[in-house]
Structures are given as structure tokens and as C-alpha cells.
Design a protein that fits this description.
The chain has 6 helices and 5 strands. With about 140 residues, the protein is α+β, with helices and mostly antiparallel strands. The longest helix is centred in the C-terminal third of the chain and has 29 residues.
């Protein structure tokens, strides 16, 4: 979908609050917008339930939570109760503009990309022998 088409869909959804949440894909991740408690909840999946059950991946992401707060990132980590995914979430008070929502979605997508990059590096660094194993000295019968 073209960006202008997405903006049109978002604008139309935004004009008729109270309906179903709006799900969309941003950088291969599900993003969800829903009206909750007088505001708009914006979230984007970071880890699906399978990846979140891998201790090294979950710990790597959780260790970045403090860095996210320290660098004034928009999203906070949470578990989505419906999908059981680890998500970045942000709540906007109403009234808000479509441009504000687009800015938050972009910020969350960028924060997600940075966290996943750091997670992959952290997991790779914690298993260097497995990722760069060289077997020059084979022993007979082994």
C-alpha cells in the first residue's frame, strides 16, 4: 500500500472512533491502533510469542528497556494480552491529529528496529563459539 493510501485509511478510521482496532503492517511487524480510556493506544510487535519464549532474546530486549528510557524513546515495553507478543506501546490523549499518530508510529518502528538490531548483536555476542566455530583439529573416531 502506498503511504498516501495508508494516510487516507488512517484518516477515515480516525474520523469514526469507537469501532474495531486498526491493524497494519509496518516493517514486517503488526502495528495496532485502538481507542482506549479516552486516548489512542499505538503499539507495534517486537517479539512474537515464539521469540519471546527464547530466554536469550527476551533478556536481550528487556536489557534494552532502560536504554530506551534513557534516550527518551517513545514506546514502553508491554505484553499484548490478546496476541501474547512483546510490544512497544504508546498512549496518546485525545484529541490528537493524524500527523501525531503517524509520528508516533514512525518513532515506534524506528525504536523497534534499533532494539531488534541490538538484540541480534547481543545474542550473537553471547554465543561466539557457536556462531564462528572452526574445526581444524578433528580427532579420529569423533
Amino acid at each position: 500500500m502506498e503511504f498516501s493510501d495508508f494516510v487516507a485509511v488512517l484518516s477515515q478510521w480516525f474520523e469514526h472512533p469507537g469501532g474495531a482496532p486498526l491493524d497494519c503492517w509496518i516493517d514486517d511487524a503488526n502495528a495496532r491502533l485502538s481507542f482506549v480510556e479516552g486516548g489512542l493506544r499505538c503499539s507495534i510487535d517486537v517479539l512474537d510469542p515464539y521469540d519471546a519464549s527464547a530466554p536469550e532474546r527476551l533478556m536481550a530486549i528487556l536489557s534494552l528497556g532502560g536504554a530506551s528510557v534513557g534516550c527518551h524513546c517513545d514506546g514502553g515495553l508491554a505484553t499484548d494480552p490478546e496476541s501474547e507478543c512483546l510490544v512497544l506501546v504508546y498512549w496518546l490523549a485525545l484529541p490528537c491529529t493524524v500527523d501525531a499518530v503517524l509520528g508516533i508510529l514512525q518513532s515506534l518502528a524506528n525504536q523497534r528496529a534499533a532494539m531488534l538490531s541490538q538484540m541480534h548483536q547481543s545474542v550473537h555476542d553471547s554465543h561466539p563459539a557457536e556462531s564462528s566455530a572452526v574445526t581444524h583439529n578433528w580427532l579420529p573416531g569423533v
